[in-house]
């Protein structure tokens, strides 16, 4: 029998937080340009997607991470410390994908 999603999803916490941490210095450096351009540059969006951050809440059966909500909030918070726009785009992608 499989584990409940909220238990199974915790296994994604460390990799998702590590991805957010890895991208944070880049986001911090790009924040002024992001604000000036008023959109998230394609290379940043592509890296967020490649890290799986856009699929955090997507069910595993649809190719997502099925991360628990606590992990999702921690990752969004970490991204927001570096750049609120990147965090906002990630939040929207995760909550409107299906």
Observed structural traits:
mainly alpha, single chain, 0% strand, 98 residues
Can you walk through the features of this model?
The chain is an all-alpha fold. It is built from 5 helices and no strands. Helix 2 (13-37) runs parallel beside helix 4 (69-82) and helix 4 packs antiparallel against helix 5. The longest helix has 25 residues, at 13-37. It is globular. It starts with a helix and ends with a helix. Mean pLDDT is 88; it is low at 1-8.
Spatial extent as radius of gyration? 13 Å
**Helix fraction bin:** 55-70%
Question: Could you say which overall geometry the principal axes of the C-alpha atoms support?
Answer: globular
Strand fraction: under 5%
How many beta strands in the DSSP annotation? 0
Question: Residue ranges: pLDDT <50 for 5 or more in a row?
Answer: 1-8
Classification by helices and strands = mainly alpha
User: Roughly how many Å apart are the termini?
Assistant: 26 Å
Chain-averaged pLDDT: 88
Sequence of secondary-structure elements: HHHHH
What's the story with the biggest beta sheet?
A: none
> What's the tally of helices?
5
Element layout with pairings:
Layout: H1 5-8, H2 13-37, H3 42-50, H4 69-82, H5 84-95
